[in-house]
Amino acid sequence: MDQIIIHVDMDAFYASVEIRDDPSLKGKPVIIGAMPHERGVVATCSYEAREFGVHSAMNVKEAYRLCPQGVFMHPHFEKYKFVSGQLHAIWDSYCDASEGVALDEAYLDVTRSAGTFDRAAEIARTIKERTLNELGLTCSVGVAYSKAAAKTASEEMKPNGYFEIRTQQDYIDLIIDRDVSVIPSVGKKTTEKLHEMDIMTVRDLLDRQEEVIELLGSHGTMCVQLASGIDVRQVVPYRPEDAKSISREITFQEDVFDYGLLSDVLFLLAMSVEDRARRHGLHGSGVVLKITYSNMRSITRSRNTASCQSATAIHREAVSMLMALNRRPVRLIGVGVYNLSQGSVRQMTLDDLFDLQIGGGSRDVRDELRRLRGIYNYDFEANLDDILHKEVMHRVTEHMRVQRMISMSSAP
Fold first, then answer.
1. Burial degree of 159 (CB within 10 A; 0-12, 13-18, 19+)
2. DSSP assignment of 68-112, as one string?
3. pLDDT above 90 covers what percent of the chain?
4. Cβ 150 vs Cβ 7: under 8 Å
5. Is 38 a residue of the active site?
6. What local confidence, expressed as pLDDT, does residue 235 receive?
7. Catalytic residue among 105, 274, 317, 368, which?
8. 59-77 per-position pLDDT tens digit
9. What are the chain's domains?
10. Cis (ω within 30 of 0) for the bond into 240?
11. Which of 63, 317, 347, 383 could, after both became Cys, cross-link 287 (CB 3.0–4.6 A)?
């Protein structure tokens, strides 16, 4: 039996959740991400904001220039994760296999559970109805013979849309005269390369297949296949143990030249990385450090190590690499682990953290957090469980940066 794939994609997910929870926002250009005076980008925005030209990944200052009347909000990731769990519980109940692409998006294989396209169409509409009736949110759904076609279908009638692409020829007929960027896997840079060769549409690409393959190699071969409607990829459920790396990073609101502060921030990031790894029963044998300087130049440094299972070991390796770098103002810092392998699945508790040792046993984590409290006037120990989450981490590190500036400016 040929595949039958449903692709579900929520409409402006973060913004829609905020509007659902605060009806006074309905009809307004809601922009989720950084605030206009902060560094950062747009995570997502309502369709009202998109009418002003605002879009995801746009610099927030540009978004403010385009839409100064917009309602700018910080994201609430824990709320979105909770709603995502509710969404996937609905979707997964109808399929043979589910591949979550993000919090708000998934491919569903309904080949056996539906059996026919007509039944798959019924399932897709039921998913839309339940998502709206039970969670108060709209989604766009595509039903097709392949993953690529299903994703294209879900985007066809957004927002709150439904579309079917039943055959390979239907897919080709739909996209043949559209820009090459419509092809899944053809991103911005690939689109630019193709446009430079005057390959503007899917038809152009298919007419000049050999040139595309010569230009892009194996990626070009895949682009040609997808443009031809050929996609045999299966829906593969995501497994945390299949991840290649786990990392966390922070962008500062102002550049940081204080490498003592950077070291302290790395300690919190390392604890967050360890917490996430333990939740999935993973540990790594390599540590990676990421730095973005004030001139937007990014560098990474990595180091294999016999053991980096603990936050303290991750921190120690990261700081060692940090201190070997040229000292310049830093915009972003991050740390991660790679070469992941599986251990026991267990969420890290505060007792776990406090049992770990800093610097080969010179002081435990509790002492380190108390040291940080003395410097930054913040109770890290009492709030540690919250700090491990992304949105709180950003607020805390910004507090640390400001406190460090105050203490240094008042020093004799």
1. middle
2. TTSEEE---HHHHHHHHHHHHHHHHTT-SEEEEEETTEEEEE-HH
3. 68
4. yes
5. no
6. 95
7. 105
8. 999 999 999 999 999 999 8
9. 1-166 (3.30.70.270), 172-227 (1.10.150.20), 240-410 (3.30.1490.100)
10. no
11. 317
